[in-house]
């Protein structure tokens, strides 16, 4: 583990967890007795403080306002040579009891052992922490922030509900809900403190009422938080903000949230005047992460890396197979063939896979295909256009399942931990190299085996050949035996409107890759029309509304079927919204009506 102060660049070697425990056990010579006495005194202070909390006029226990989502299991094994939570001093007894008795935690995970000393009061250092998902990092930032909440409310006398003490900003709704559930788990013996969420896809007015009714901890996604901060009363609720945490900071920036983060920080009280603590947790440290660190952290912040030097990343140790097919229409049949082979090889009861698609519309298409071919494992679809309640259920069901297939977009590529994933399929090229690596990281966790299978059309070969040139792919033959079934499903089970959405999303996504594909706009449309005909069973080119074509930058391109914009409804909601936070590049809009019927054989 590496720890250094960014202000001075100085590195410090800290004693290991075993060394610290030896000191507590009396192996530090004459100092040990005095240290044990200080610990006993601190524990007595903590117990007295807990009694004072319980004697305060607390709010009655309130039912959880966090949507029910299961807490993911750690994806790294818990070590036995790190400090124990039960041995912590200076931490409220109710928090220690929640950790050890309710949550059944014993030894700290390495990221917790490396950071808690710096993050807990009284030090409350600003820290940039490099840590992977599934390593216990959520507790690493929640525990010190909640201890600060308890300390500050006790000292100031403002009590529970006296304003937001902790703000955690998360890149996705699902991760925000996971964090909120873990916060509630830590506070289950201190129910007077309330955890609220502010995320897209939920009722904004209800969130507002919950926040203004008394919120101590707020977990939010950037877009929804910006919406709420236009309310002066909610902005006032941040006047006592003690801690600001950015979780998955690299992912927040990859998703284009830097402008939103700047606006949020500007709207918060001045950091210097409030003694606010800042924490950034990120799996990777790049220039843009250090840029946001300068926005949120003090100049002399500590950098702590919990990723051992030289540790192999998933893409460096997991077998990866490349399935290449001649046309885009052959991609879906090749996906079916690869899934069938893996399920047979591993045994269907042990086969648990994630299939990543470039866009939400293509994820829906692949979901229709996989759920309508007999003999394949059960499959479900997860992306940002699905309602929040439905997404929560799908996430929980898949996390708890021993086998099955989840078809998803990049909404779960980072920050979401699913135990036991045996295979990651990437169908079509991802947005960039980092997305490929992050997706692959959903398998082979905690020392388990896993593999990746990358399915691409011949035209996309530049991506594995050049963008991923350091990865040694093992070629794998494409099984296209399901081609007729896939075509029949597209013809009979996917309506014209949905075909139009898939076609439009395909054009929008691959327009971003025209330079690499060596296409101009006319060839893009020509390839899209072939895809619609041969993959979607749409012999007539699906139409696109005039305004949508303009937004896509394809106005005047030959081969498109243009239709007038649908009249705007005077009452009620208009059509076609979009993707929420955590978007996929070029995921496309919601399109117009579909093309004609007719039968035409698929060609590859």
UniProtKB/TrEMBL annotation:
Belongs to the DEAD box helicase family. RNA helicase. Its EC number is 3.6.4.13. It is an enzyme of class 3 (hydrolase). CDD domains: DEADc_MSS116 (cd17964), SF2_C_DEAD (cd18787). Keywords: ATP-binding, Helicase, Hydrolase, Nucleotide-binding, RNA-binding. Residues 1-74, 566-604 are annotated as: Disordered. This is ATP-dependent RNA helicase.
């Amino acid at each position: 583990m590496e720890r250094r102060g960014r202000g001075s660049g100085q590195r410090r070697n800290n004693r290991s967890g075993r060394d610290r425990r030896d000191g507590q056990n009396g192996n530090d010579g004459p100092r040990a007795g005095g240290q044990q006495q200080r610990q006993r005194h601190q524990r007595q202070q903590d117990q007295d403080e807990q009694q004072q909390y319980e004697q305060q006029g607390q709010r009655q226990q309130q039912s959880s306002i966090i949507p029910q989502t299961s807490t993911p299991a750690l994806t790294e094994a818990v070590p036995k040579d790190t400090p124990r939570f039960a041995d912590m001093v200076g931490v409220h007894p109710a928090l220690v009891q929640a950790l050890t008795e309710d949550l059944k935690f014993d030894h700290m995970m390495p990221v917790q052992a490396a950071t808690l000393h710096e993050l807990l009061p009284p030090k409350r250092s600003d820290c940039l922490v490099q840590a992977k998902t599934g390593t216990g990092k959520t507790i690493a930032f929640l525990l010190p922030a909640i201890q600060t909440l308890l300390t500050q409310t006790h000292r100031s006398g403002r009590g529970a509900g006296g304003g937001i003490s902790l703000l955690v900003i998360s890149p996705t709704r699902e991760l925000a809900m996971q964090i909120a559930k873990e916060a509630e788990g830590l506070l289950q013996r201190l129910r007077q403190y309330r955890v609220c969420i502010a995320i897209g896809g939920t009722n904004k007015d209800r969130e507002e009422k919950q926040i203004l009714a008394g919120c101590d901890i707020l977990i939010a996604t950037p877009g929804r938080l910006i919406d709420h901060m236009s309310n002066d009363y909610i902005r006032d609720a941040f006047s006592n903000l003690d801690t600001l945490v950015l979780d998955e900071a690299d992912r927040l920036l990859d998703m284009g949230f830097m402008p939103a983060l700047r606006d949020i920080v500007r709207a918060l009280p001045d950091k210097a005047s409030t003694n606010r603590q800042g924490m950034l947790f990120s799996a990777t440290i790049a220039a843009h992460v250090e840029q946001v660190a300068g926005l949120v952290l003090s100049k002399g912040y500590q950098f702590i890396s919990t990723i051992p030097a030289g540790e192999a990343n998933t893409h460096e140790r997991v077998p990866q197979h490349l399935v290449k097919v001649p046309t885009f229409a052959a991609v879906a049949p090749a996906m079916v063939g690869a899934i069938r082979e893996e399920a047979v090889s591993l045994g269907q009861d042990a086969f648990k896979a994630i299939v990543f698609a470039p866009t939400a519309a293509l994820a829906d298409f692949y979901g229709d295909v996989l759920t309508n071919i007999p003999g394949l494992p059960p499959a479900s679809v997860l992306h940002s256009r699905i309602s929040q309640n439905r997404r929560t259920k799908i996430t929980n069901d898949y996390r708890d399942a021993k086998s099955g297939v989840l078809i998803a977009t990049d909404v779960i590529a980072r920050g979401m931990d699913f135990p036991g994933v045996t295979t990651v399929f990437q169908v079509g090229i991802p947005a960039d190299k980092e997305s490929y690596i992050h997706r692959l990281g959903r398998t082979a966790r905690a020392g388990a085996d896993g593999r990746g299978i990358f399915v691409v059309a011949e035209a996309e070969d530049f991506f594995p050949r050049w963008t991923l040139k350091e990865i040694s792919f093992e070629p794998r033959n494409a099984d296209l035996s399901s081609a007729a079934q896939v075509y029949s499903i597209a013809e009979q089970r996917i309506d014209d409107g949905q075909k139009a959405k898939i076609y439009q999303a395909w054009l929008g996504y691959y327009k971003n890759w025209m330079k690499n594909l060596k296409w101009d706009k006319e060839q893009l449309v020509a390839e899209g029309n072939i895809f619609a005909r041969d993959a979607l069973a749409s012999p007539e080119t699906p139409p696109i509304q005039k305004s949508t074509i303009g937004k896509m930058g394809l106005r005047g391109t030959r081969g498109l079927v243009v239709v007038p914009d649908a009249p705007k409804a005077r009452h009620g909601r208009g059509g076609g919204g979009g993707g929420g936070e955590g978007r996929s590049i070029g995921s496309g809009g919601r399109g117009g009506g579909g093309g004609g019927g007719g039968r035409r054989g698929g060609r590859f």
